[in-house]
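Customer escalation, tier 2.

The customer says the design service returned an amino acid string that "doesn't look like it belongs to this structure." They asked us to rerun it and document both sides in this ticket. The original structure tokens are below, unchanged.
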């Protein structure tokens, strides 16, 4: 349930749950100033995986719900 090769991120919801999301055509940068190498506002790049947890992996990249587009925010609450 980890973040395989930087392709998955976890999004923190307001109710305390974390939802696993696959982001297309990205690799998260481990070094450098810029953390993400993709357009974070493009809703077509997000695929919500049907995994929800209270405790995400310790090495996973975590985004807040407010940082993602509105369409994706609606999808993460359907799980």
């Amino acid at each position: 349930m980890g973040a395989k090769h930087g392709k998955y991120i976890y999004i923190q919801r307001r109710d305390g749950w974390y939802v696993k999301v696959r982001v297309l055509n990205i690799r998260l940068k481990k070094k450098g100033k810029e953390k993400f190498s993709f357009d974070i506002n493009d809703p077509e790049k997000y695929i919500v995986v049907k995994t929800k947890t209270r405790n995400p992996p310790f090495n996973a990249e975590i985004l807040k719900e407010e940082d993602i587009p509105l369409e994706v925010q609606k999808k993460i609450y359907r799980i």
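Tier 2 assessment: The sequence is consistent with the input. Strands lie at 8-12, 18-23, 46-53, 62-64. The chain is about 10% helix and 30% strand. Sent an explanation to the customer and offered a walkthrough call.
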